[in-house]
Design brief:
Blueprint (H helix, E strand, L loop, with lengths): L1 H16 L17 E2 L5 E2 L8 H7 L11 E5 L6 E7 L2 E9 L5 H16 L17 E3 L2 E7 L19 H18 L24 H10 L2 H6 L2 H18 L8 E4 L8 E3 L8 E4 L6 E4 H13 L7 H4 L17 H12 L6 H13 L2 H13 L4 H20 L1 H16 L1
Antiparallel strand pairs: 1-2, 3-4, 4-5, 5-7, 6-7, 8-11, 9-10
Amino acid sequence: MVQAQTRLRAWHRSAERDPNRMEPVIAHAMGEALSHGMDAGSAVPDWAPLAAPDIERLAAHYPELGGSARILWHSPRPFSAAARVQTASGAWFVKRHDARVRDVAGLLEEHGFIAHLAARDVPVPAIRAGAGGATAVALGPWTYEVHALAPGVDAYRDAHSWTPARSTAHARALGRALAQMHLAAQGYEAPARGVRPLVAGFDIVGAAALAPALDDYLRRRPAVTDFLDGAARDRILGALEPWHAPLRPLLPELGALWVHNDWHASNLFWTDRSTEAQVRAIIDFGLCNRGCAVADLATALERNTIAWLALPPEAAAGAPADGGAEATRDIGRLPLALALLEGYGSIRALTVAERHALPYLMALAHVEYALSEVDYFHGVVANDANARLACPGFLLGHVRWFEGRHGRDYLGALRSAVAAR
């Protein structure tokens, strides 16, 4: 531990001497600094945790961070460094991004959508503007943002994004809050986000022609193209086409909408820690983008009602359906899925086209985010093992599960539920 702390202090000193230093660091392995791994465990984070020098530099732009500041807690989220910080003026949530992942323009895309929702009384944490008036600040290779603390209880603080909701009441509340956000998002007409790592989207799945859309996605992301060879591209297309073909006629009827794209119980704050708790606030709009409501609903179902991290390694690598281990692993949580759908439908009814599209979108919900993870892991932090887990691993593994017996049963129950509504 002493050696790790020394390494961390040395990194901070070198970063001060060379503000353009961009490579990820091996942060110290103290428990509070570990991040969520790609499986259900913890991992050494890609980025050094926030420390006093970060807050001191940032205080020149955010006076509320001035004076004596204490870091109360480091977030375990893996793709940035974030912490709850106590100052004389109160407690704040501070995030530091590598500028290759989120520059100022990238954060302002997120902040614009958050501001739209806040103006319509959606409970989102307030984003602080710096001394220059902007809600994001660039300092050397880093980009910072400062949020007020979200109201409510962070009941899923330590939960990975692919762990199911803890109760049907939580799932029902997830559905209601998502529908309310979708209604509030109407009227926000910003264009889709720029090309960035770690952003979900609807460019491939929402396209009328699958192959040209995938090729255009890859062309605009050289790191993904460098990682995937032609055989991988063809394998992806072969897996997606049976799900995309019946979806295509429905696409013109799915209205465009800015959406959250990472609707998981850990991205919400709750009224309390009980199994009957309700949603109190929405956080983490890092994946938000222009898409459509039913695809966001599919993502919410995928994130909260299927235990993906329970898949064995060979299934996560995209083994063929009905002959691989995923065919015998029932990871769907249908009571949660039906409760989430019920909650959503109690606020916003699905259109006929959305009801037909939902089962196909379930199998395609993870496609573009998996590719964006490749952009990050291969292009930013040079971690090809994790890039392979993302694609072909999780991308094909999720699709293949829906082809197996349990996945078909899950989708059949969804079809019956939306038809009954």
